[in-house]
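hey so u asked for the seq, here:
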Amino acid sequence: MMFKKKYIWITLFFSIFSIALSFAQDKNRFQAIENEKIAYITKELGLTPREAQQFFPLYNEYSQTLWDIRKEKLNGTPKNSFRNGSRDILQYDAKEVEVKKEYRAKFAKVIGNARASQFFEVEQEFREHLYKSLQNRRK
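ran it, structure tokens below
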């Protein structure tokens, strides 16, 4: 009986430990991708250290705002988002476009209009680069 309790506690401990380790690895992977993205954006937009120092806090706000909208799109529903019993996906897309317009203006104050507009292209290019590299790793 004592042996069974000890075995159960050891199994439980290792299960919790492996779950925690898994979450830490996912967080590290995400952080590595974010770091690579920051380096890519900095290089492609030709940001000076001063511009980068002002740009990336705005970028972090922008990124978090988009994440919140996308989570809401997948998981929740804001008020009045249902029409005839179905979710109005276009409402979320419209929110994303508004956020992008708002942040393009904020980015322009730091890096100018041309590079602020170019940012969205660079961001898309990075996603494509990331997707291709993931495809290559799977092969």
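The helical segments are 2-45, 49-75, 89-111, 113-138. The beta strands are 82-83, 86-87.
lmk if thats what u needed
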